[in-house]
Amino acid sequence: GEDVEQSLFLSVREGDSSVINCTYTDSSSTYLYWYKQEPGAGLQLLTYIFSNMDMKQDQRLTVLLNKKDKHLSLRIADTQTGDSAIYFCAETSDTGRRALTFGSGTRLQVQP
Amino acid sequence: DAGITQSPRHKVTETGTPVTLRCHQTENHRYMYWYRQDPGHGLRLIHYSYGVKDTDKGEVSDGYSVSRSKTEDFLLTLESATSSQTSVYFCAITTSKNTEAFFGQGTRLTVV
After folding, report:
1. Which of A43, A89, A94 is the best residue to mutate to test the B interface, defined by the most B CB atoms within 10 Å of its own CB?
2. Cβ-based contacts of A98 with chain B (< 8 Å)
């Protein structure tokens, strides 16, 4: 079945850039997502990218997609303490049940 | 949040009792999903619905049933709660073009 993998933890200093990586196995993935979850809260959709795109930029967020290697990354520029959270990568296709398959999440810790 | 409301937000129940969680949406989305979130597993799909009275199983459906008698409501029932079902449960919808997936705030269920 589909699988999505992420590293568990990333620590950066405030003001630096953060790069969170994700790999997936489903070659029919159509949309790839990044969600943010703060403690005790739900999942906030940060951004998504369509599989025929290589890059998407949205303010401080840059998503890069290497479809050949099935590798997705999220770059957060000028990381702030408020960016400390768990970040989930997810993928889905636009056929069938359209459910998202999630990675296990990357905990981002931003040190002042 | 795409008008998604989950109830209750917190519940403690005893082993062996039935429990029903409710997901209500206000925007007439066709696809609705129930996920559970456990440490180290990300979110895993329990059941999903692609229309009124149309439901199907996800990867972790054992011990759960669902019903969707109206477009706006998707109910998740634990037929006889077990301690392994202690988790945070999230309801989600996908938009009609499947470009975005939004989540409710979650229900924290503890089975004692």
Report:
1. A43
2. 31, 94, 98
CA distance B34 to A100: 11
Each residue's pLDDT tens digit, B23-42: 999 989 999 999 999 987 88
Q: What is the pLDDT of residues B10-22, one digit of tens each?
A: 999 999 999 999 9
Cβ pair B74, B91 in contact under 8 A: yes
Task: Give Rg (Cα) of chain A.
Answer: 14
Confirm or reject contact between A33 and chain B (CB < 8 A).
yes
Residues near A94 by Cβ (< 8 Å), separated by ≥ 6? Answer: A30, A31, B98
Alpha-carbon span A51 to B112, nearest angstrom:
44
> Locate tokens 């011990």: which residue?
B63
Q: B111: which 2 tokens?
A: 């089975």
Among B6, B77, B89, B107, which residue's Cα sits nearest to residue B44? B89
pLDDT digits (tens, 9 = 90+) for A50-106: 989 999 999 999 999 999 999 999 999 999 999 999 999 999 887 777 889 999 999
Nearest to B98 by CA among A53, A32, A104, A42: A32
Flag whether pLDDT at B96 surpasses 80. Answer: no
Residue type, B88: V
Confidence of residue A1 (pLDDT cuts 50, 70, 90): low
